[in-house]
Structure formats: structure tokens, C-alpha cells
């Protein structure tokens, strides 16, 4: 084998959600996410150039075990890579990935996995061509590649926070790649905690890809695009001022709208479980009674992400022990937050 390249990339949690796409994983609306710290994928690739080979060849292993099911999914991604970087046609990759979070935790791993893989691919590309890119350019290209693998993965390339999708209110924003927003964050959001309540460990009933597709002829498509733009525009100044009241409104409207869109698709479907609603109801009670800056969001699944600044952790821990002790005891919470 020629060389060994290794990268880690975290998962991310969207506040303004990407939901619905055009060809080549281009989003129909701008999105924003925080990049997490503990839920990560580490990918190592041993690679070599092989003479006489006219298509990129690879094998994929998860923690040392060959996974043909993933190889099938990755084939499409590598077709994009080859089209962009023809030098990869003569390359063989031996890929080994591992997640820091349990495989069956119901946490989407595609964002961290595709971001880590895209970063590896850019390192290999630089090695093949003997170039050393500036970090900005390197991450920008990795974000572009990650997007081709899994839309939201393009945001995971950047620490702390990133936006993806063109918005006229954010200079430099693009549908093609994410842009870093770490330097736009108020201290309140730099210490944001994400307690992920694992409601179900089962594989999703309807995949995100199918969900994105259902937005094509969705009766609320235009209204959704407008709503996402409005929330995105509202969020940008909030990130700088640390205004929790508006942040909470945006966060919860986005989370529930995402699931509302699923429920109003054709065919319609529900990913939330009774336990998801139970946690949200308890959280809303706690939020209203305590007046503390705490909120929730939800990905395309039943798990609930509880968000709050580090400074109120003791109060939040006490609330969980009092009102949601089932989760506390059964260790069904993944404790995450931003990179400190
Ligand atoms: O990147 P995908 O295709 O897994 O879609 C992600 C969709 C959401 O997680 C629901 C929203 C988002 O912006 O991350």
C-alpha cells in the first residue's frame, strides 16, 4: 500500500433544516447547523495507484469488517469523485471507518461518515497532485465533495457552526458547499449542549432520501421554502446577539415543521414516537416554569435533541432526574455539544 490517510468528522444538528433537494444534492433552501463534538466518524484509508486500472476501485470496512451494503452506496459517490478528479480512476482505496457513537443508536451517521470520507479524498487528491492547498480552499473542496455524498455532510466539515444553501442575506453562501459560521457565534451558543434522547434505536421507517424526494410534489413546498428563508434570515443576527427567546422560536418551529412536512407528504408518514412527544411536553413545561434558555430540535427520526447553554447544566440535569429519570437511568442519552 502506498499511503495511509486518516480524518475524523463529527455529526451536526440542524437548526434551520435542509429538507428537499434538486439534482446532485442541491438544497431547495438554506440551512444552518451546529457541529457536534462527541458523535464522530473516524475514517482511515490505505491507498495506492495501480497501473492499467481505469476505474476507481475500493473496499469498505466498518471496524475491520467488510460491508458490501455500504460499498453499493459509496459507488455513486465515487462516480462523482472520478468525474471531478480523473486521477482517481487509477486509485485503489482500502477504507476503514468507525463511529464514536453506538451503531444502533438511531443517530444518523451519514453526515459524519461522508464528511470524514470527503476530507480523506481531498488529502489523497493533494498527495496525488503533489499540492498543498490553503486550509480554506481544502475545506471548501471537501465540503463540496461531502455534499455529493450526503447533503447535510457538507456542513460537518466545519467546526462549531456552518450554513449551506444560497441566501442573499449571507455573503459567500452557496448551494454547492457549506460556509463556516464559527466566528458569528455569541458566547451563549459557543457553549451549547446537545443532550440526545434516544427514543428508538430502530432503522428509520422512511429514509431521508425518500423524505427529500417527497418534497418534489409536496403541497406546501413553496411555503416551506419561504419559511426556511425567513427562519434563516431571522437566525443569522440571533447567533451574534445570543437572543435565546428568538432562537427557541426558530428552533422549535423548524423541528415541528420538518415533521409536519412528513405528516403532510403524499404518502404521509410519522417518524415521531409517543416517547418523543412525551419528552417535548415535559421540556415545554420545564421551559415555561423555569424560564431557562432550553429548547429542542428533531432530526429525521424520533430522537429528541435538547439544547441549552452550559451555564444551566445543573438545572437541566436535575430536571431530567426528576421528570425523565427513565432516560437518565437507562443511559439513553448521548451527551454532546460543541467542540470546546
Ligand atoms: O443529508 P441528509 O440527506 O441526511 O438530510 C438531512 C436532513 C435533516 O437532518 C432532517 C436536516 C438537516 O439539515 O440536517
Low-confidence stretches: none
Q: Roughly how many Å apart are the termini? A: 36 Å
Total discrete domains: 2
CATH class of the largest domain: Alpha Beta
Order of helices and strands: EEEEEEHEHHEEHEHHHHEEHHE
Overall 3D form: globular
Task: Specify the number of helices.
Answer: 10
Instruction: State the total count of DSSP E strands.
Output: 13
What compounds are bound to the protein? Answer: (3R)-3-hydroxy-3-methyl-5-(phosphonooxy)pentanoic acid
Beta strand %: 15-25%
The description of the largest β-sheet is:
7 strands, mixed
Helix % is: 40-55%
In CATH terms, what is the fold-level topology of the largest domain? Ribosomal Protein S5, domain 2
CA radius of gyration is 20 Å
Compute the average pLDDT. Answer: 94
- Class from helix and strand fractions: alpha+beta
**Would you identify the CATH architecture of the largest domain?**
2-Layer Sandwich
Question: Brief description of this entry?
Answer:
With 340 residues, the chain is of the alpha+beta class. Helices cover 40% and strands 24% of the residues.
Explained architecture:
With 340 residues, this protein is an alpha+beta fold. The protein folds into two domains: 2-184, Ribosomal Protein S5, domain 2; 187-337, GHMP kinase, C-terminal domain (Alpha-Beta Plaits), CATH 3.30.70.890. It is built from ten helices and 13 strands. Strands 1, 4, 5, 6, 7, 8 and 9 form a seven-stranded mixed sheet that branches. A four-stranded antiparallel sheet has the order 11-12-10-13. It has a two-stranded antiparallel ribbon with strand order 2-3. Helix 2 packs across helix 3 and helix 6 packs antiparallel against helix 7 (244-263). The longest helix has 21 residues, at 221-241. It starts with a strand and ends with a strand. The mean pLDDT is 94. (3R)-3-hydroxy-3-methyl-5-(phosphonooxy)pentanoic acid binds at residues 14, 17-19, 31, 108, 110, 150-152, 208, 212, 258, 299-300.
